[in-house]
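WARN retry 2 of 3 for item q-0093 after timeout on previous attempt; input resubmitted unchanged.
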Amino acid sequence: MAPALLYVLIQSSAWKGNSPKFAKDNTIRSMRIISLNVGLPSAQRYEGREVITAGAKQPVPRAVLRFTNFGGDGQADQLNHGGVEKAVCVYPFDHYPYWSRQLGRDLKPGAFSENLTISGAIESEVCVGDVFRIGEAMVQVSQPRMPCAKLAGKDESKTLPKLMVNVGYTGFYMRVLSEGLVAAGDSFDLFRAHPDRLTIAEVNSIIYEKSYDVALIERLAELAEFSEVGRAQFARRLQRLARG
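OK item q-0093 returned
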C-alpha cells in the first residue's frame, strides 16, 4: 500500500486516547527530539575487527525525512535494517542515565545508533500504530527495535543486546507517512493514538517469549499497522502454539 494512501486510512480510523500522559492539546507531555542522528555505511573497528556499519551516526541540526530514511542516512545490512517499515529508528533519551550507570561512562545522543533521540517516548506508553508529527513530517510506530551484535561492538559491551531486551529498553521503529524537514529540538507530537493501544513493551513481551498470551498474539498478527515481518512472525507463533 502506498504511504500516502496508508496515511489517509489511518487518519480516518484512529482516535486520540485518554491518558494522563496526554496534555490538553492532545500531545504527549515533554516529548521532544533531543538529537537527530544520521550516518552512511563506513568501516569501523569493533572488538579488534573491521565491520561495515552505518551505526556510527552523528548529530546533525536538521535533515529531510523521506519514505525510506533521512537524507544522509543509510544501512549496511539492508536485510535486517532500514526499508519502509524501519525508516526511522527511535531511542528514548529517558534510558540514557540507566545505561550510563550500567556501562560506567557518559553516553552522548546517538549512542544506540538511533536516528532520533527522544525525550518522553518510552516503550511502556508508545503503541504500535500511533502517529506522530515531527517537524514537517508524519511518522507511525511500526515495531520494536531488535538490538544487534554491531550495537554491542559499538558500545563495547557484548551483553548489551541481551541487557536491553531484559529491561525492555529496546527503542522502536517508525514508518514515514508524509515526508518533510525535521530538526533537532522539534516537538514529537502525538497526532493520532491507535485505538488498540498495544504498547511496544507488550510486543517485546511476545517477541522474547516473556508472555504466551494467545489473545495478544492474535491481535498483533492481525494488526495492519504492525510491520509485515512482525505479523508473519506472530502468525507462525500461533501455529506453533496450536500444535502444542
